[in-house]
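explain this chain.
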Amino acid sequence: LLNGGGKTLDLTVVRNDAISGIEIIDIKGTGNNTVKISAGDVLAMSTTDEIVIKANAGDHCLLAGTGLIGM
């Protein structure tokens, strides 16, 4: 859970072997939040090669290396 608003969780700056066993990332909070993640991050962190991003309206997910922004 990402507490508060206006926060960015940038997983592209974390070593791929530093986090594992993650299947859900929750960026909901009191304001608009952002998670930045790459395909390599997903493959390294998840045992299923999939990660679910839980978000509120106004939150964003940036897929690094693609230029895509979603939510």
Q: What stands out?
A: The chain has one helix and six strands. Helices lie at 39-45. The longest strand covers residues 34-37. The two ends are 17 Å apart (CA to CA).
